[in-house]
Amino acid sequence: MKSHMLLLFAYSRMGNVAKYEDIVNQIEESRLEPDTFVINSMLNLYGRLRQLEKMEKVLATMEGQYKVDISTYNILINVYGRAGILDKMEELF
């Protein structure tokens, strides 16, 4: 899992969604559970690339299966603020 995390970090920094999603699929196929860190980095990646629909889909999945933490909320507030979606940003604040 540690090597997966390093790859996820690298692909996220590069903005390479396809490679990032491939690694997440490998994690799921190997029956490993992505943790809150993986999910948060995915939210951050989609948010930075303005893929808000994908980000919100991940968030909906996360809220049912993973712990939403302060980092999650900070990512969302930042993304919505940069996108000018102030009503959603204020809901989270």
Automatic annotation (TrEMBL):
Classification via InterPro entries: PPR5-like, PPR_rpt, TPR-like_helical_dom_sf
Quote the protein name from its UniProt record: Pentatricopeptide repeat
The family this protein is said to belong to: Belongs to the PPR family. P subfamily.
Record has RNA-binding as a keyword: no
The UniProt keywords, alphabetically, are: Repeat
Q: Which GO terms describe its molecular function?
A: mRNA binding
The portions of this protein that span the membrane are none
